[in-house]
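ESCALATION

Customer reports they have been waiting on this structure for their group meeting. Please prioritize. Original submission:
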Amino acid sequence: MNARRNCFLLLLLLLGGADVARLSAQDPALVEALAPLLRAEDRLEFDPDLFGTAALHPEPLVRRTAALAIGRIGDPRGSAVLVRLLQDRDSTVLPDVIFALGLLADTSTVAPLINRLKSSDALIASAVAEAGPALIRIGSPDAIAFVEVVLKGQG
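Update from on-call: job pushed to the front of the queue and completed.
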């Protein structure tokens, strides 16, 4: 029985990494905040009030989940929430926000995204890594021009 348990724990570690600890005791308040976001994403229903509130939640996981759900839902009304989230100060949130912007492919978000990339705030590598693909997915002339400049080493 211990061998089976150890295999199960190893599988959880491989699949979930650091999130294994969260499996043992979920915070009910966190579950309450995440559930409506996941439900909206599953139904592909954008609720401006729900996502606007989630973008202000004190827990970064809720803000990240909201950003990804907005991108996956694909409703352009979510662009405003994502643009606000570009200023999030938690380093784990920004990569998901940038990825979600790419999923939305709303050309109105190109300038705010480029401005965030050019800001004096240091960005973590995963946020920078998401920026190129996101801008290419958006595909506007400004987005492509920015990527070309960066690739040529001029930006």
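Sent to customer with the following note: Residues 7-14, 16-24 have pLDDT under 50 and may be disordered.
Escalation resolved.
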